[in-house]
Amino acid sequence: QPSAQRVVAPTFKAQSWDAQVDEMVGALLPTVESGKVVDALAREIQRVVQRIVPEASVVGFAGGALLRGCAFGVAVPDVDFVVTCQPEALASGVHASKGAGTRNTWCDARQLPKAALRSFTEGLVDSGRFKFRRSAFSAAEPKVTLLAADTGGNDAMPFSLTVNVATPLHSAALLAECARLNPSSRSLILLVRRWARDRGISFAAKGHLSPYGWTLLSIYFLQVFTETAKPVLPPLARFATARLLGQGIAGGADGEADSAPAEAAEPATDLSVGHLFKRFIQFYTSEFDFRDEAA
């Protein structure tokens, strides 16, 4: 269904394109305050979840500043909360909360995360602090979208809740590493993700790329960008944070998996984020070979 919030063109104090982009990026960057909000909400969700599964823990990940009341904010939340727990403890807690059915039903590897999400969602909604908005149980990583009510006069904050998934961690790790290697790269990623969301092309349930997919496209573009003496970002195998997440992410067929992590250095380019964004659009419009090339 259409977004309840209209896509409103932002207003800027700056006049030039590059300055306006920098102003926009400044509003998208995560802040200390947003981190505190996410951490406090993670603790609140964990208290509810642990009533069902005492061994569970909850971690929150914010993709940027907490922009409430934005178009497509519920369809594509800025915040992810991941419940982590050993499958045996998860199955035991879900089984006990249902009070019926067989244990084998909840131990099914495909059904267990969905059953857990249903139990956690019921508990969160019953607490009176959260409202259910939508579910995506047919996705590769089942998730539920909820709203956290705000008592301070702000709009409610939408967030995604998942169980034992790795994508939010991978996304946060890549963003952090991009910020370390070249701050402009993180700025471009946040700008691309916001652009894709406002254009309504970042809702995975509709067949679009997810925000994580747009992140990977941005990183690939910055690795092959040819207007500078050296790439803005190194190969993924040299991302120090990504290498910690396993060979499935950092490894490569070219033998670079054992390369030393790239050092943070002077930015590889003095080009503006505004120019990089224009070149990003141009690259995937007319230069990227969708038949023979892969990001």
Q: How would you describe what is shown here?
A:
This protein is an alpha+beta fold. The chain is 45% helix and 11% strand. It has a five-stranded mixed beta sheet, sandwiched between helices. Strand 4 and strand 5 form a beta hairpin. Helix 1 crosses helix 7. The protein is globular, with a radius of gyration of 20 Å.
Features:
single chain, 11% strand, alpha+beta, 11 helices, 5-stranded mixed beta sheet, 295 residues
Outline of the structure:
By secondary structure, this protein is an alpha+beta fold.
Shape: globular
| Biggest sheet: strand arrangement | 1-2-5-4-3
SSE pattern, N- to C-terminal: HHEEHHHEEEHHHHHH
Structural class label: alpha+beta
Number of strands: 5
Q: Mean of the pLDDT scores? A: 84
Strand content: 5-15%
* Rg of Cα set: 20 Å
As a percent range, the share of helical residues equals 40-55%
Number of continuous helical runs: 11
| Main sheet: strands, sense, barrel | 5 strands, mixed
CA(first)-CA(last) distance: 30 Å
Q: Poorly predicted ranges (pLDDT <50, ≥5 residues)?
A: 247-257
